[in-house]
Amino acid sequence: MNKMVGRRVLWFCLGLLLICLAEAATSNSVRADDNPLVDKVKSMWRAQDGETVEQIISRVAKVAHFVPRTWGVAGAIDQSEYVFLSWTRHRHHRSLEEYVITWKVSPDGAIMIASTYAKPMELSWRAFALSLIAGEVADGEKNVNLRFLHDPTNFNFVTTAQGKLGNLLGHGRCTIVEPVSVDYLPKVDENQATKGDLWRVLLLVNCNIPGPRYFTRKGVITFEKREGQEWEPQSFLAKRIATFPPGSWFDHIEPDERDALERARKASANERREQFRGTAD
Length: 281
Known about the structure:
The chain is built from nine helices and ten strands. A hairpin with a 2-residue loop joins strand 1 and strand 2. The strands form three sheets. Strands 1-2-3-4 form a four-stranded antiparallel sheet, with helices on both faces. A four-stranded antiparallel sheet has the order 7-8-9-10, with helices on both faces. Strands 5-6 form a two-stranded antiparallel ribbon. It has helices at residues 2-26, 36-44, 53-60, 125-138, 146-149, 165-171, 213-216, 236-243, 258-277; strands spanning 67-77, 80-88, 99-105, 111-113, 159-160, 163-164, 174-185, 198-207, 219-225, 232-233. It is of the alpha+beta class.
């Protein structure tokens, strides 16, 4: 969990820096809410499903500890300009406890989310809400909306050849348990050995179907998606879900799959251990 905390401290520090820059940039100009650059982000930026920033903010605020505060402009950096929205988990939190979502507006007019933790917003409002709620669980927040976090239908933004993931889990009589992770993994270095620049959904599920217990009890489901590409199953159970009809994931296993199944069993145990260490590695 130390890495999770470290990332959140980094977001916090970057947020303070952007707030300070924004105050300096807007102190002698019009209010941020009247700034044409803020209006441009609100009107032109879209999630992959077509939702606007304001639609996402409104919906997320109803299910997560997410209280929008102030829009602002952080000025030009490397010929790009930055628009930010500050927010907090609780209405009465002090300003020093605020988080920040930042959009980068390039000279060619392209708009992209610059805050890595907020990148799930690009998928849909549900993906962003799930990522925030999962963070609340990891941080020990009170009154977390576990009902939303554990509702399989909220994961329908993940699609497979068999259909939408949430629907498949429902037909497979699966319930979601902790931990849950919906995040974006950036590529920090072109030469890094680990994966980067992708969205990842990672779940543990209990499924009331015939099959090996190490997959039907706290089975690991992992899907990943790169920009412009389809969701790809990564864990053994995810591959079965994406390949076979709901609930029939273990009805038939070919003899040549036995070794693969045993390797997957060991990998699944390792994946569960990694999850409980924290999913922000």
